[in-house]
Amino acid sequence: MNVIVSAIDYFINWGRSNSLWPLTFATSCCGIEMMQTSASNFDIARFGSEVFRATPRQADLLICAGTITHKMAPALLKLYMQIAEPKYVIAMGACACGGGMFADDSYSVVRGIDKIIPVDIYLPMCPPKPEALLDAIIKLQKGIRKETLLDREKFVEAHISKLKEEKGLLVEDLGLNVTYMGVSKDD
Question: Which of 19, 35, 37, 52: disulfide with 24, CB 3.0–4.6 Å?
Fold first, then answer.
């Protein structure tokens, strides 16, 4: 029985890794590089990711390209919550990974989107080249091929428990009632 389950997992993960559908979410200069990746020179279609989705219900990969402010954070969280499981996140750019050049001087910038949502791949350049984004997608595909659903649940749960320990970032469970800095996902 274990052989059958592992074979099914292999084929499901192979299909899932080769058909990542990214959500269009770009807030600054990294978005231009993300758009360039889908152009003919770099051709993200080789990885099954050629159609950037306009709705989170049709996507399974969130490429967060650019600066996230505290005012934008509830919208990012709401989009993340609307993506069906299993969902994956690439933090693209220094601003998305750790606040970038705004980390020390700006009070309004979130110092890393991992304070809001779990991140699978960090791409900390300013801005990352299209080749770097393609490399991140390849690494994500390799990780998806190796994972099991139980591993994914443990990854997300570890992130949730870490955020619950920090003050004021996530108050409720990520499943139903989510509050970020006093703003509910339903507002």
Answer: 52
Q: How far is CA 31 from the centre of its chain?
A: 14
**Residue-range definition of the domain harbouring residue 60:** 2-181
- DSSP conformation class of 70: T
Which ranges of the chain have pLDDT less than 50?
Answer: 1, 167, 169-187
Q: What is the pTM of this model?
A: 0.78
Q: 26 is written with which tokens?
A: 């770009």
Residue 129 lies in a domain: yes
138, 110 Cβ separation under 8 angstroms: no
The per-residue pLDDT for 50 is: 76
Whole-angstrom distance, CA of residue 74 vs CA of residue 62: 15
Residue 112: both structure tokens together: 């890393």
Q: What is the pLDDT of residue 150?
A: 66
CATH of the domain at 39: 3.40.50.12280
Find out whether the peptide bond into 124 is cis, omega within 30 degrees of 0. Answer: no
| Any domain includes 187 | no
pLDDT of residue 122: 92
Tokens coding 148: 């099991």
Task: Report the pLDDT value the prediction gives residue 174, as an integer from 0 to 100.
Answer: 41
Residue 105 lies in a domain: yes
Query: Do residues 170 and 118 touch, judged by C-beta distance below 8 A?
Result: no
Count up the domains in the chain and report the number: 1
